[in-house]
Design a protein that fits this description.
80% helix, mainly alpha
């Protein structure tokens, strides 16, 4: 009594595995980018909070608002510098 699997069944199985991998990859790429954006926003928020804590006695403020969080999320640490420039020079 042997186990017989026809070639079309094997090919359909392999095609299903490849499609499952492709769909999983398409779902994970936006998730990774979104998590990276959230991580950068959190890091920028932390840096802005630390800068505000240490520089407020010198009259140099780092206001923490949604605009500065989004800016630091997209640009990272250079976004912190840009947010400080926008808030204190303009």
């Amino acid at each position: 009594m042997g186990l017989f699997v026809s070639w079309p069944v094997i090919l359909y199985f392999l095609l299903g595995v490849v499609l499952l991998y492709g769909v999983g990859w398409l779902l994970m790429v936006p998730l990774k980018k979104g998590l990276f954006f959230l991580f950068n926003s959190g890091l920028g928020l932390l840096v802005l909070w630390i800068l505000d804590f240490f520089t407020e006695k010198y009259g140099f403020s780092a206001v923490i608002n949604p605009f500065s969080a989004i800016l630091t999320g997209f640009l990272g640490l250079p976004g912190v510098g840009l947010a400080l420039l926008i808030q204190n020079c303009l």
